[in-house]
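User: Quick sanity check before I run a bigger batch. Here is a single chain. Can you write out its predicted 3D structure?
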Amino acid sequence: MADGESIAEVLTLAERGWRLLPCAERGKIPLIKDWTRRASCDSEAIRSWAQRHPGCNWGLATGPESKVWALDVDGEPGRESLNSLVAQYGEAWTRTITVQTSKGMHLYFSYPSNGAIRNSASKLATGLDTRGDGGYVLVPPSIHPSGATYQWTTPLNGQPPASTPEWLFQLIASPQRPAVRASDVGALYTGSRNDGLFRVGCYLRRKGFELDQIEFELLDHNTRRCKPPLPDEDIYKIARQAAAYPIGGPDPLEAAWNSVQGKTFSSNYAKFIALAAELQAARPDHPIVLPVNRIGTLFDLHRTAIGCFRRQAVKDGVLELAEAYVAKRRAACYKFLGKLEEQLPKLSLSSPYGLGRVQQNTQQLPIERVAVITHRESPAVAHRESPLTHRESLRRCLACGSHALYRELDGTITCQSCSALTSEVN
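Assistant: Done. Predicted structure follows.
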């Protein structure tokens, strides 16, 4: 489709009040910073982005501002889960605006006024993700990295998305951010029970538990956490599978770390992204956990640096928050968006880390004048040429502990030694 036709199609979506944003050509990475705020239905803004990024994909920022959210049916597991819901609740609720994706579909629904729908991965069922407040989905005529084109399954004809069914809203919504009950933390629902219990069994096996001990523990977890509990025979089968592994050995994080060791990356941030990709590849249909303390130990960095990496990855569109952190009860869970080879070359060139891309893909940014200072010098010192306009100073980094050169850019401070972005410096 010609660029002119593509923009015309995108502008018809903007006329609905849907907030749009440009994304990488044949990719999903947003091409504008702070896209959650800057996504727009203004035709002039959209035309400007189209001129600046010819051939780009287009994303729809879901949530209350656009008054729409999307149910992402991901691949065959998602279709099976969708068919289960149809068998239980009928198929009338699926008659809504629908987009055919590379492996599945997006079902669009009107955003409810009585609660919040946030992003989730397989919370509703395996392969069924939600894109709500703070999320986005690609819209036609965007092109998937595989070459498949996103397409409306039926003409829009000015029809609005269907209303969100009450039963569906109750399953996925978060009305007014209620406090998480202790009994719900760690709960395993249909679609995640077997995987969750198998992970517990493997953890116990690494600790040296024998089959009868694993069975006892899994039966207890099944009673307390699974909703509804699995039959006992399923628990014994899971226990036998876990007990078949040798005692000890690396856990999933250590296995992912071993996979990225020996490879060359342009920065610690790029290596962190590769680690997240390995974790997701091991569990493609489930969210992953990125613990700052353990990963900081592996990287020999302070936990602050790892926390900064996680936030930047979400901002770059590489990671997506699937389950929020609950203090002392549940770790934050994320979903890695895409394949590593697709993501590394496309990370934001405007990232405060100035990294993200492998070395052979680095590009020289425009040359500008820059002031270089130390903590004892006046800001009015000699100038030199540099790719970025910033101020640099020497101070102690709380992330790596060394007296390193710091760069101040747009109000943020970045350690040039370990790439930690933090204002917590001495």
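The chain has four domains: 3-172, 188-243, 252-360, 368-415.

User: Great, the batch can go ahead then.
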